């Protein structure tokens, strides 16, 4: 995994070059006029950066760290930046991918990873519940997080029932 993460980080160099070129194609004060042209790509790049950081450290990447990885600004006032909604959408995509990773980890015989993913996703869900999301695409994406939480809980439950998480069951079993 570390080698794959390093290879992914190398690809972000190309991304930075492309985004640097994009910055020169429109006036800086018209970011939102053209935002729809690159919104989806930025959300996907946030997901990729967040996934790499999660695989490396099992932590959530900050918006500022993603902006640094992509070579763009975190602050709106500085021009081409990482919009907060794009960041949050990318993080929600991460949650869906981690639900898949939890299932695939069990298939690969890694029974402790789903427990760690469950803890991470539950903390992420708690954070999103604090937000007052409007009835827009971000809200709909957040609604999908509930299904990801449920899917991961089912994986952890199955591991508990089958006794496959004995080394981690002491800490996780007491929390539920």
TrEMBL record:
- Name the major location: cytoplasm
Q: Which Gene3D superfamilies match?
A: Translin, domain 1 (1.20.58.190), Translin, domain 2 (1.20.58.200)
- One GO term describing the cellular component: cytoplasm
Task: Please state where this protein is localized.
Answer: Cytoplasm; Nucleus
Lineage top rank: taxon: Eukaryota
Question: Which UniProt keywords are present, listed alphabetically?
Answer: Cytoplasm, DNA-binding, Endonuclease, Hydrolase, Magnesium, Metal-binding, Nuclease, Nucleus, RNA-binding
Cite the binding residues for Mg(2+).
Answer: 97
Q: Which SUPFAM superfamilies match?
A: Translin
The molecular function GO annotations come to: endonuclease activity; hydrolase activity; metal ion binding; RNA binding; sequence-specific DNA binding; single-stranded DNA binding
Protein family according to the UniProt entry: Belongs to the translin family.
- What role does it play? DNA-binding protein that specifically recognizes consensus sequences at the breakpoint junctions in chromosomal translocations, mostly involving immunoglobulin (Ig)/T-cell receptor gene segments. Seems to recognize single-stranded DNA ends generated by staggered breaks occurring at recombination hot spots. Exhibits both single-stranded and double-stranded endoribonuclease activity. May act as an activator of RNA-induced silencing complex (RISC) by facilitating endonucleolytic cleavage of the siRNA passenger strand.
- Entry protein name: Translin
The organism is Opisthocomus hoazin (Hoatzin)
